[in-house]
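User: Hi! I have a protein structure encoded as tokens and I'd like to know what sequence might fold into it. I'm fairly new to this, so please keep things simple.
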């Protein structure tokens, strides 16, 4: 009787040991992986001059691709960031006694995002030496366009820009890329000159 009990215990031990060894086999031990986002390695900041027949110039990042506009809007420009799957859309319009309307349109474009935006911050921009003035709109939250801006000389020229990512808005995963490209937008604003 004792031998039967010992034999059954030995079989149970072998079965349990085999089960444990088989279930722990391989890299995945059943522990769930924590949620995380991909690490993004950003390039070093470096800029080049944008020159065209349009009445403005500015510096844009070397790690971006610029697409000049075509007829009927040859001075509408797209700056594409392939690494980040993002684009800055630039729209140029000459001022024809409509500066108030143009700046109000820019404000309305930014504030269309109030449904999803947690906050919208406006930063005034002035560069008296280049005759450039404008506003940078920083939109927080899961919005389609996190950074928008406009520049003008208040007399002849008006340039509006908006940053869009080609993906569903997610403020947490996009935050590093938004911050990185926002620096490039500020640099663009600071280096814009009118012809």
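Assistant: Happy to help. Inverse folding works backwards from shape to sequence: for each of the 195 positions I chose a residue that suits the local structure. Here it is:
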């Amino acid at each position: 009787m004792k031998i039967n009990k010992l034999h059954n215990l030995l079989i149970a031990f072998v079965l349990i040991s085999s089960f444990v060894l088989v279930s722990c086999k391989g890299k995945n031990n059943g522990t769930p992986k924590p949620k995380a986002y991909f690490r993004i390695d950003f390039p070093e900041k470096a800029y080049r001059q944008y020159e065209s027949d349009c009445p403005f110039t500015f510096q844009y990042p070397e790690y971006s691709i610029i697409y000049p506009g075509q007829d009927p809007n040859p001075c509408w420009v797209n700056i594409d960031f392939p690494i980040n799957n993002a684009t800055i859309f630039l729209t140029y319009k000459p001022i024809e006694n409509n500066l108030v309307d143009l700046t109000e349109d820019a404000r309305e474009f930014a504030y269309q995002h109030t449904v999803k935006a947690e906050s919208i911050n406006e930063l005034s921009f002035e560069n008296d030496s280049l005759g450039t003035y404008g506003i940078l709109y920083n939109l927080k939250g899961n919005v389609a366009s996190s950074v928008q801006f406009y520049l003008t000389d208040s007399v002849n020229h008006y340039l509006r820009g908006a940053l869009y990512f080609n993906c569903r808005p997610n403020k947490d995963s996009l935050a590093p890329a938004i911050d990185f490209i926002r620096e490039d937008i500020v640099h663009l604003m600071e280096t814009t000159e009118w012809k």
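A useful reference point when you look it over: Strands lie at 47-50, 56-61, 65-68, 77-81, 86-94, 117-127, 132-141, 147-152, 157-165, 193-194. Feel free to ask if any position seems puzzling.
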